[in-house]
């Protein structure tokens, strides 16, 4: 089954992730706020994720908030031994659904405990520290925040640490404090500003997890992608995911969906073989 999911990546002892994972954000209501319209369907999608052999689910207690983690618990608890739930801290939600950056060390600690409660676990597999803005990093030091999470790791509340929306310099700063197993940044066919960071993380055996893997295409870029997809008898989304898997062996995907049918399409992308001429054409998409 793992071959059908693009194989696996093992960024740390005890942490083996299928390269095609699942992002649970879309299981919440509109704008990632409130409950889903169809909770039973959300539960069914999560169970289909595990049945497909996926061992990598990405979530956060601020999705909903709390709603998504509760659905994961309802659908999958007690969790399969090989399933790794990756969560993130660094934000909260306002009563109006607004996103509020929340990175004081004490609040990060509280968010870790929130995730432990909502997922009903004694230790979190991976906690990503979310930094930067909506889709781009800043240059702030992360030492205080990452140090706080490193102390929780030493206490056994977290097994592994990761980062989200960071620069190469921030990654180096974090590595001087504690091991990093994942970096989750904006990256896709159209937006490749992190090419060097992909290479940097690959050399260090750190999983690079692109978010918005299917977003940000101009009409011209979309036309090119659609033409390649038509030749390969695949969907544009499948081609974009297949390109990411081919881009580097340390890339792990977390496409999200609330549809079992769409989930099957995403899984099938791992088996899509991109000919060299298609790759060359896709490589020209970046702006």
Q: What is the compact description of this entry?
A:
The chain has 287 residues and is an alpha/beta fold. Helix content is 38%, strand content 17%.
Domains (count) = 1
What portion of residues belong to β-strands?
15-25%
CATH C-level: Alpha Beta
Helical residue percent?
25-40%
Secondary structure class reads: alpha/beta
The CATH architecture: Alpha-Beta Barrel
- Number of DSSP strand runs: 11
Low-confidence region ranges: none
Question: Main beta sheet: strand number and arrangement?
Answer: 7 strands, parallel
Strand order within the widest beta sheet: 3-4-5-8-9-10-11
- CATH superfamily, please? NADP-dependent oxidoreductase domain
Annotated CATH topology:
TIM Barrel
Give the count of helical stretches.
Answer: 10
Element order: H for helix, E for strand? EEEHEHEEEHEHEHEHEHHHH
The gyration radius over C-alpha positions equals 18 Å
**Arithmetic mean pLDDT:** 95
What separation lies between the terminal Cα atoms? 36 Å
Using the alpha-carbon principal axes, give the shape: globular
Domain NADP-dependent oxidoreductase: 20-285
InterPro entries: AKR (IPR020471), Aldo-Keto_reductase (IPR050791), NAD(P)_OxRdtase_dom_sf (IPR036812), NADP_OxRdtase_dom (IPR023210)
Pfam family, one: Aldo_ket_red
Keywords: Oxidoreductase
């Amino acid at each position: 089954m793992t071959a059908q999911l693009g194989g696996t990546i093992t960024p740390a002892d005890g942490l083996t992730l299928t390269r095609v994972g699942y992002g649970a954000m879309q299981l919440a209501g509109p704008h990632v706020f409130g409950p889903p319209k169809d909770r039973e369907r959300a539960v069914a999608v999560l169970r289909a994720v595990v049945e497909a052999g996926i061992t990598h689910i990405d979530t956060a207690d601020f999705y909903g908030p709390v709603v998504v983690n509760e659905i994961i618990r309802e659908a999958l608890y007690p969790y399969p031994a090989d399933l790794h739930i990756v969560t993130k801290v660094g934000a909260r939600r306002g009563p109006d659904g607004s996103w509020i950056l929340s990175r004081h060390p004490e609040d990060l600690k509280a968010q870790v405990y929130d995730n432990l409660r909502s997922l009903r676990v004694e230790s979190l597999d991976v906690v990503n520290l979310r930094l930067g803005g909506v889709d781009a990093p800043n240059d702030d030091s992360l030492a205080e925040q990452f140090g706080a999470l490193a102390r929780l790791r030493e206490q056994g509340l977290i097994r592994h640490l990761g980062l989200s929306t960071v620069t190469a310099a921030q990654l180096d700063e974090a590595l001087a404090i504690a091991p990093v197993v994942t970096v989750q940044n904006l990256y896709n066919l159209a937006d490749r500003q992190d090419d060097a960071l992909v290479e940097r993380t690959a050399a260090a055996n750190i999983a690079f997890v692109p978010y918005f893997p299917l977003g940000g295409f101009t009409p011209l870029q979309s036309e090119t992608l659609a033409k390649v997809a038509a030749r390969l008898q695949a969907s544009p989304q499948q081609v974009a995911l297949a390109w990411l898997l081919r881009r580097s062996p340390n890339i792990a995907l977390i496409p999200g969906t609330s549809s079992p049918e769409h989930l099957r399409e995403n899984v099938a992308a791992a088996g899509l073989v991109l000919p060299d001429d298609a790759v060359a054409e896709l490589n020209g998409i970046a702006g």
